[in-house]
Design a protein that fits this description.
homodimer, 233 residues, alpha+beta, 60s Ribosomal Protein L30, Chain: A, CofE-like fold, 2 domains, 6 helices, 12 strands
Amino acid sequence: MLSPLTVIPVEGLPEFREGDVLADAIAGAVALEAGDVVVVTQKAVSKVEGRLVAVDPDDPLSHKALVESEAVRIVRRRGDLIITETAHGFLCANSGVDLSNVEAGFAALLPVDADRSARRIRDGLRARTGLAVGVVVSDTFGRAWRKGVTDVAIGVAGVAAVIDLRGTKDALGRELEVTEVCVADEIASAAELVMGKSRAVPAAVVRGVDPAWLREGSVADEIVRPPAEDLFR
Amino acid sequence: MLSPLTVIPVEGLPEFREGDVLADAIAGAVALEAGDVVVVTQKAVSKVEGRLVAVDPDDPLSHKALVESEAVRIVRRRGDLIITETAHGFLCANSGVDLSNVEAGFAALLPVDADRSARRIRDGLRARTGLAVGVVVSDTFGRAWRKGVTDVAIGVAGVAAVIDLRGTKDALGRELEVTEVCVADEIASAAELVMGKSRAVPAAVVRGVDPAWLREGSVADEIVRPPAEDLFR
């Protein structure tokens, strides 16, 4: 029998500040098991990594200047909406600069390297619990063609970003046409279903993923599509 | 305490054929509960709806002609990769025409109207079980900018496609900036994590979604971004 997957919101976490150790807080708030994947929101990571910067809430240009300084390229602009490419290679609104769930007068920037952020959390969880778990740092991005945002992975550690099914046969014994599945984005989306946007739940545990996915992983190397291969920027 | 979400693969389903009743098979294979969301793959829906068409497996042009006939517009083309816009307004590879998990010599087309397909399954499940459940018809799409495919919703019934958090406050009491979350795509992605690509598991049950999401829904009306609003086609 195939196992179900369980997605557990991590409750009781404090409002995080620069220098807080996410692994300590998470290990203290939930009983982890080997093979779990812990999903942590970008907002929590940015706060502990000191990625908050002051903005003037009454001056929209203050936010706009920040968005442009975090962009390597402005990809599209319409009205107030700015789609940029970030130094990480992400295409997203406002370079990922975000005012929600941040103290008034501040904006949160993306982590400098969210794969590294994920590794730090994974290493901390291993030190605290002795368990090997995967970690996904998630953020909320819009996308082309479809309305509404979904959560995606911006960093991973100890879990695959993309699995390669090349050579795998389908249920009828034929080679699969679609071979690269972005499980890290799917894990981030599953976690968002329990975290919500308005509740103070910055982490979730996804229990029961395929153990074969628990390997070294990297959003930067596996998910970010090189510009030369991208038909839509 | 917040509830966890559980994603249960529906095992023991038969290989579906035209005319089979998906609701009967699913209700017989899994014990549903009120408030569940049942995710069914496009492939299963297309099979029971007779959306298989003959192709010559030795003639790539046979598949290509089908892809073009299912497109209202070719959006991009590079080598063998064709991104099209379908009559539904979806942007995807090969107009959603797919040879995997289909008998040799046939290709599966997308359902004509997957919201209607989802309503039919929901109505059948209600008739069989007396329970009100949501239904998502899922398919596997690539996307701009990010490598790997993920599962998304192509039809829904009895569950929101996009929830609107406008007016909702964040954990610190500020208005949210991001207000429209595509929960149907997140539910489809969560289900894919247990369905895999190579296993014969064409359905999953997502248990524990926010009851407020269980309302009438429509991918066509809520997710498909009108061309005039789309910056990337």
